[in-house]
Amino acid sequence: MPNKTISVRIDGELIAAQEGQTILEVARANGREIPTLCYLKGLSAVGACRVCVVELAGTDRLLPACTTPMQEGMSIVTGSAKLELYRRLAVELLLVERNHICSSCVSNGHCELQSLAQSLGVTHVRYAYNNPRLPVDMSHPRFVLDHNRCILCTRCVRVCAEVEGAHVWEIGGRGIYSRIVSDLKDDWGNAHNCTACGKCVQACPTGALAEKGFAVHEMVKQSDQISRLATQRASHANGANS
Amino acid sequence: MATAAHDLTSESLEAHERLLIDQAIAKHGNRPGALLGVLEDVQAANAHKYLSMAVLRYISERTGVPPSTVYSATTFYSLFNLDPQGDNVICVCRGTACHTRGSRILLEKLCLDLGLSEHESGETKETEKLALTTADNRFTLRTVACFGQCALAPVVEVNHHILSHVNERTLQREVKALTQGRK
Questions:
Q1: What is d(CA A135, CA A147) in angstroms, rounded to the nearest whole number?
Q2: Which residues of chain A are within 8 Å of residue B63 when distances are taken between CB atoms?
Q3: Where are the beta strands (DSSP E) in chain A?
Q4: B10 interface with A at CB cutoff 8 Å
C-alpha cells in the first residue's frame, strides 16, 4: 500500500511528507537538525533521552520527534528558547546521574553526550551530582562496560536484539537503580549469548561500552556503520513483510 | 568455562522443580506477555516465594525468551523476589499519609525488634524500597509506597492482612504473636 502524502509545516515552511514518517525523519529529510541521543537510524526508536523534543502548534506539551508520527496539518517548531531549555535540562540530568568525567574517558572528544552538551552550551549543571558507586565490568576478553558512563539510552540493547539477534543486553532494575545487564546479570565475559561482535560497543554514544586497549581520547565509535547496517536490515525485514 | 557453569545451574534444579516450571509454561502457552504469568506461578509455588537464578535460566531456556529479558522483567516488578523470603512478611506503608502519622518510627522500631539494620549498611537510603529478611528466615520486612488505605494510616500489612491505625504497641504485640505462634 503506497503511503499517503501529507502536508505539514516545519518551522513555518510547508513540507510534503509520507504518512507514517516520524517528525524526526521528515525534519532530517528536509535539512532540519534536531539533536538526538538515544536515536540511531535503523534501530527502533524508544524516546528515552528526551533530547529530540519539538513544539507542536496547538499544544503546550513537547513531543519527542523520534517516536511521534507526522500527521496531516501538523505545525512543528524544531528550535526555540523553550526547547533549548528543556534539551539542556535533559542533558544536565544525564550528566548528574552518573560519573561522567570526560578527562579520563576513552571516548573524550568522540562522545555524543559530550558534543551534545557542548552544542547546547551546557557549561555547568544546576543540580548536585549523584556520585553513585558503580562497578566496571572488565570480564569480557575484548570489551569493557563502565556503568559510570552509561546513560541508559538502550542503543546497545536494541542493536543486539534487532541487528545481531543475540539479545544479550537489557535494562535491569528500575528508576535510579536501572543498570544495563547482560543475560541474567552475569558478567559480560560469561554471558552465554554474546557473540563478541562488538556492535553494542560501536552503537554506544558514550564511553560506557568500549574496546580494550584504547587510552583516553582514543575510542572512536563507528555508529554510522551500525546505522547503515541496521537500516539495510530494517528495509529487508519490511520488504519480506509486504 | 561459561558452558560448564551454565550446565551446572540447570542441573541444580530438581526434577520436580523442572516439572513445575514446564507445567507453568505449558499453561500459559506462547502468547506475548506469558512470561509474567509463568514467573508469578513459579514464584507462588516456591516454598520461600522467590525465583532463583537457576529457575530464571531454566525458564529462559524453555520459553526461548532471552535471559536478559527474563531478568529485566523480574527486577522491574517488585512482586518478584530474587532472594528467599521469610515465613512472615511484614509490609510497612511509607506513603505520605502514613509517613505523616509516624510510619518511619514504626519501621525503625520493627528493624530494631527484628534485628535488621537498614541504616547501618550505608548503601540503603531513606527513599529506597526496602526488602530485608532476618537471618533465621522468619521475617521479611518490606516497604511499599502506598496501600491506598490512607484514611486508616498508618497502615502495616502482616501476612497479607492489613492492620490499620497501627502504633508501636499493637505492632509489637502482632510480631510477638507471630514469633510465639510458630514456636
A1: 6
A2: none
A3: 5-10, 13-18, 53-56, 62-64, 75-77, 136-137, 143-146, 169-172, 179-182, 209-211
A4: no
Residue with cell 560469561: A190
Put simply, whether the predicted model's pTM sits higher than 0.80 gets the answer yes
pLDDT band at A62 (very low <50, low <70, confident <90, very high): very high
Which of A166, A177, A184 is nearest residue B71 as measured by Cβ atoms?
Answer: A184
Please name which of A199, A212, A220, A194 lies closest in space to residue A138, comparing C-alpha atoms: A212
B67 touches chain A (CB under 8 A): yes
Cα of B164 to nearest chain A Cα, Å: 30
Beta bridge partners of B89: B140
How far is A41 from A22, CA to CA, in rounded Å? 12
Q: Which residues in chain B are closer than 8 Å to A174, comparing Cβ atoms?
A: 75-76
User: Tens digit of pLDDT for each residue in A227-240?
Assistant: 999 999 888 887 76
* Sequence-separated (6 or more) residues with CB below 8 Å from residue B145: B93, B94, B95, B129
Q: Give one DSSP letter per residue of B21-89, joined into a string.
A: HHHHHHHHTTSTTHHHHHHHHHHHHSTTS---HHHHHHHHHHH---HHHHHHHHHHSTT--SSPPPSEE
CB nearest A192 (choices: B6, B69, B75) = B6
Chain B residues with CB under 8 Å of A157 CB are 68
Ordered domains of chain B (ranges, CATH): 2-76 (no CATH), 88-179 (3.40.30.10)
User: Which residue in chain B is spatially nearest to A133 when comparing CA positions?
Assistant: B123
Nearest CA in chain B to A161: B66
ipTM: 0.88
pLDDT digit string, tens, across residues A141-179: 999 999 999 999 999 999 999 999 999 999 998 888 899
Taking an 8 Å cut-off on Cβ atoms, the answer to whether B68 and A174 are in contact is no
